[in-house]
């Protein structure tokens, strides 16, 4: 699989997503690392770390960041299959997971 992105656009969106998490929860720290380029099956793609005075805030913020990354971060996935390469479409399940955070704080 290959993950493609436009660096300036992606970096800004990741920063915006992280800032939104910090506004919603009282985080003392957060970190997002998202890989791109050619990846092999089983490779790890994303790391999200949150720290807060209270575990619920850290866990909720982490879940929010993962859900928002899946639906709002501008990455495009291309899989190589036996029939040739194909772009991976967005999944309804990812949108459904992210919907729990719309309007919530």
Give the arrangement of secondary structure elements.
Blueprint: E1 2-4, H1 7-24, E2 27-34, E3 37-38, E4 46-52, H2 55-72, E5 76-81, E6 84-87, H3 92-99
Antiparallel strand pairs: 1-3, 1-5, 2-4, 5-6
Helix pairs in contact: 1-2, 2-3
Helix-residue proportion: 40-55%
- Structural class estimated from helices and strands: alpha+beta
The SSE order reads EHEEEHEEH
CATH-scheme architecture = Alpha-Beta Complex
In angstroms, what is the radius of gyration? Answer: 15 Å
Overview of this structure, please?
This protein is an alpha+beta fold. It has a single domain (2-99), classed as Aldehyde Oxidoreductase, domain 3, CATH 3.90.1170. The chain contains three helices and six strands; from the N terminus they run βαβββαββα. The strands form two sheets. It has a four-stranded antiparallel beta sheet with strand order 3-1-5-6, with no helix packed on it. A two-stranded antiparallel sheet has the order 2-4. The longest helix is centred in the N-terminal third of the chain and has 18 residues, at 7-24.
